[in-house]
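Possible regression after last week's pipeline update?

I re-ran a chain I had predicted before the update to compare outputs. Posting the input and the new output here so someone can diff against the archived version. Not blocking, just want to make sure nothing changed silently.
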Amino acid sequence: MRVIWFLSLLISLLGGAEVKIATYNVENLFDTVDDGNEYEEYIPNTAWGWNDEMYRTKLQHTAQVIKDIGADIIGLEEIESETALKDLKAQINRQGLYYRYYVFAKTNNSAVNTALLSRYPIQSALKLPVNKTGKYRDILEAKVNINGKFLRIFVNHWKSKSGPESERILCAKRLLSRLNELPPDEPYLLIGDFNSHYEEYRTFARSRKLNNTDGITGINQILKTIDDNGDPIHYSSLQTCDRCLYNLWYEINEERRWSHQYKQYNEGLDNIIIPHSLADGKGIEYVQGSFNRFDPSYLFKKGKIYRWQQSRGYPKYHIGEGYSDHLPIYATFNVQ
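New output (post-update):
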């Protein structure tokens, strides 16, 4: 720890710092208080076996992953409550990584919500409701002070693919409307579980269930991570296109561009997306080539993501093994 502290101090004295930012869908971190919004299998003290012991096991497993990532700032999805977030934060601390600052975004009547843990001060935070129905999870916006430079981080958890693309387009439009309110050169970062593949416009095109928008997707056309010709935006494109956004999945080999498995499909549902203001040579900059998927061997079993385990037979119950059905992703940013 002293070596890490010394290196951080040295970087700071030289005029900059490298900050690792991650996102992780932890898969249903519920506390053990029955407030009426739980999924059936997470109602405490039922035949499913979700109880204090199982909760502690889930906290320990989740904290292990977050500690091993070692991010300075991490966005989290599928946290039930602020109580669960605080308990997770305490468990991470016991395992050797301390996050002093946090913010939690509770959407009314939602079973799971978004949060942000940070080693840097969070100056302000707010929730962006997608609409007034409460059907959609709020988008969390946090303004983080990194050595006197400010970065807005938007933590997303869009509607799942149990519904059509029109639902995710609503999420994208709400996010875009907020981005359009920001000064053109203000640095911001989009992270989270978008429930959208980085090339969703290609993967969903033939799906009658998903494609109810004539081929238009929230993550690609609305947020403009592809150009008018349907080609992906790349890092170099940010120099000439102020409204374009670059999805960092393109930084790694194609066979590794996924963070979630559904049946036989591998999908990059979790995304980190940057604007031109993080590639303009000023202030806060994305470190090219630093994006990666966090995929140590313990997060897999028999070639599949080692998600939180429930029994196969009935009556079903929690086993107390596994981690999450998503893999974390992360990237590094230089702050001058």
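Follow-up from reviewer: compared with the archived run. The chain has a mean pLDDT of 94. Marking as no regression found.
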